[in-house]
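> @MW can you paste both from yesterday?
MW: sure, first one:
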Amino acid sequence: MTFYAQLPLFLFIFLSVARSQKVAIIGEGIGGSFTAKYLADYDEDCRLEDITIFEAVPIEGPVSVDDASDRGWQGSRITSLMLKDGTNIELGASIAHNGFTLVLDMIRDDPDNLEISAPFATGLDEDDTERSMGIYVGHKQWAFRTWSGWKLLNKLTLVLRYNYDLVKIAKITSQAEAAFVSLLPELLSSTEKGTFFQSPEQIWNRLGLLKAVMTPFSKLLDAAKIYAELPYWRSFLPFQGSLRLELLTAINLVNYNQDIDEINGLVGLGSFSASGGSLFSIKGGNHAVIRSAVRQAQTVRSKRNCSGLVTQIPKKVTHVIGDFSGFSLFSEGENLGDFDVVVLAAPLHQARIDFKVKSQFDAAVLQSMPLGGLIDTEEPTPEEHEGHETIPGYLPEAAQRPYTQVVTTVVSKGELQGEVLGLGSTEKPPRSIFFSSAGKASLHNITAITRIHPSGIYKIFSNDALTEDVKKTLFGPAVFTEYIKSWGGPHGGATPAYQGKGESTEFLLYDGALGLEGHTTSGALYYPSAFELSSLACMEISAVGAKAVSKLIAKRFGWIHEDGASKGHDEL
């Protein structure tokens, strides 16, 4: 190529490097808000012109029982409900674990606005302090029940029922938790070679957890010799039960609404870790950490006297049109602006965005963006659902993975009818009730019932919405439905349907620099939600995805550089 032929390319490269960059973040949940904070931290010289967060339903605070927002738009899965008497109830992600290092760091950095409280705290003075729980196995039968205030007795109950199986799963879980909690934050902060992870699989491999991610939980339990059927010798012992069919199944149904053969090994271990660890929530609602992260990002840029701060725009992004110079974002026909880098901080199928790229031969011609680096030579004909184009069929399979449906129902003025569950008239039901697969099937596909407050406020998780007759049967004729939140439908869901393994996409879904041999920092589309598609779905995993993506963007913009030699880690 002659000098004159290359001149336009040289000029474009020079202008791209010289000008300030703009980043758009689509989605204001943990992934989006934490990405804004981490990018603000990395941008020490204020090279970013602007960080803009787009959210169709901004998170201003708890929703009210009279909330009239777009019920067809799911929004953040970290959402709380404020009843008229001031009771605060988590509708989505209810609790956090003391191993959530990145979430805890964000909380500690904002002590004036964020405060840790007990799980299921409502903000009222008379919170329910009882911690009893039970597993219902159907047909008015229970696997076991625990008692509030009797920690030692409850531990002995579990050990007696599940015997050495409990020791084995605790040991495996402890190894996985140690790798995740102790090594991951350090790796994400490091600039050594091999710590700029391009995909979730690279992270899990570095932590020695990839085998657990790619193996169904059922097979991991088989390898540990934790079987559904009890060994012959345990038939001679009293009060014996199957850890696999009871406790492990129940905690994964409540967390993921998936049985142990549907989740991968690390998801199962993560659920067990949460069942035995120190848990907490955030006073005023877990959504407060989202607002805090954005506020902290704004404070960082303000203290550095950056010209552009962090802008929040309450718009639903419907179209993203890209080329080697960046992206143009649209909300239906409204132009939302041009950006160098876009971060999609929401599951692809929930975002409902039409991704297009300009033809290299004619900029007026738009083609489907080859997300994931996969190009289909035959343009698929997009189908429509509720007026929105579905994701093109050539996306990576993991990106099209469906999410499980869960319906959250909040009722008041109720009293759980113990006789429905086989309890005597004088027996008090446990505060938290979990269900085995058989228990779920026998009671309207319910996976959990939790008493939120002694005044008769309950939260129920189920596959589908409960009828009024079912609610009255369970909670008495005076029960009143305060709120119903459905996490599901064609463009929703609570957690990825893992289908037994943790395949995922890379964090970089599209790179406009490929056509320019990497000589531009513009035109990159990143996807932090790829991390939860691989394994686990919780606040900390969303934060890890945000940190990994922010680090890649910082490297792309030249704010940080890779150095040193990489190190490995033993496989679990």
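MW: second:
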Amino acid sequence: MYAASSGQTYCVPCKNTWWRMQPNSEGTGCVFDPLTWVVVPVMLLLSTALFTTLPLLLSLAVKIQDVRREEGGVVITTRCTHFLLRSTHGIRAVFCGTGHPLLDGADKRRAYRVQVRSETELLLISAKSREPIGSEIDSSMGSVQFNRFDGLMKRGLLGIPFVCWAVLLLMGMCGVRSVILLTGAGAGGAQLTALEMLQVIFGLLFAILIHLLNHHRHASGVLDKNLHIFSEELFKKNPHPQPCARGHARAISARQMLDFFQAFQEYIGSSRNMYYVCSNILLPLTKSYKLSYAELAGPKTLEWFCSHFWGTPFAHFVETVTKHAQVVAEELNIQDFAAATYWICTFSNNQWRVAEEVGASWEASSFYYALRSGFCRGTAMILDEDIKPLTRSWCLFELLQTTLLSQEQEQRGESTFKGLLLCTPTGVMNYGQGNIELAVNISKKLATLRLQDASASVQADKDMIDRLVCEQAGGFSEESQQVFDPSRKQRVASHEQALSKRFDPIAGQLDQPNHTRATNPIVVNAARWYDGHIRHDGAALAGRRVRDEQRWQQPQQQPQQQPQQQPQPFIVMH
């Protein structure tokens, strides 16, 4: 307030629309109020913080960077800070777009909670038992949204919920107004000037800008960026992807498979399987064209049909197919083993049109078209110790068609179709390659395998294949003997030959007189261990083969267990 002239009986307030004013020292005019330099930046800071905090109260979805099974349970890594506060009982969460059936779906809304491990990591726990989830869950996409109430009270910063931060910021802005009022100076007292109102608006704009930049920064994960780079590489090699007929024309080469694996090995690792590869990599890669991966990368004509279980680790699959390609190249004296081509359902089928690929009947399926195309040289079954492919209905269908094809060629006197090849990362078991212990384990599994227990993701597919087995193979028991009786004997015999070929030269050297060997106690005990274990195992393997043949010829009789000779212990003499 000031008096405009000497002797004036009333005072006039200092008015200015844009900034605060105060009376001069004589009280005869108004000058700029230095309080403005305090009020303006404080209002800008408080309003920016307030408007930045408000969206966090809404518990908006948080993008997922990765979901994987670790030693302590399933760990979820978010692309940005999730701002969850630590809670003993966890926070209710809903997942969307992860591509995993155990996470996605409206019926799972009350199934899961999450506990904080770090500012970007969460541990998935059961909503009922509060125990960590032990299922194999893998994903690198989607989002997680927290329960509204939990998000309101259990999301915050520095241990303080955001709702409390919002209240504190509002109180701060009100405190600024109170300070202005208590000073009793300035234009309009506690009223905000235009400049101060602009700071509130600027705070809102800054908060919007912060959220937009944060969204842009985390909109694409590391995998998304690598998918984009790999897509550009595919486009350079095949600039005009076109659909082609289902069946033999949609194979990929071993080199294309290896390029794919090397590009995404960081995310696939050693444990993730085809389910992860299809949902997180193949579908995003082919989304623009809605084609199969083979059509996108440049399709090849098939030479080998791959029969495999989607739950097998993809690294194991790649290693096994690569080994098969090397074996075939060596057999045919081909220098470039990676030129071998394979029909692999995950890569050869259009995953955007699965119903069309499966067909209305088994004769209309892409699997049947590929096997019966006349281009297929054989079926490479990708095995692990649990022989999981033989527990899946579609693999059973492929096995049946392979058997029928082999019989038809045998009747015609042809030998172009190699039949069923049992493949492992260490070689083709039909050729006596691979780990001997693995062969024995697989044989034990086959002895108790019930093909009628094979399952499928879709029950209708299992029912169709079960009917086909009954129609074309006379039922499961006959089909089992028809498929496994000859191949099983051949596999055991081939491994016995491989065992002899590998260790007989060593046995000959050990049997020769050698002064050093005779006087060296370590070598003496090594020879004794060889006689007790290696030769013993060879004899046991041969005996097992004879007993297996007898059991297949007379399945109703139980083989008598022969007492095994105990090998001599390995004793190092000092």
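> thanks! The chain has 18 helices and 16 strands.
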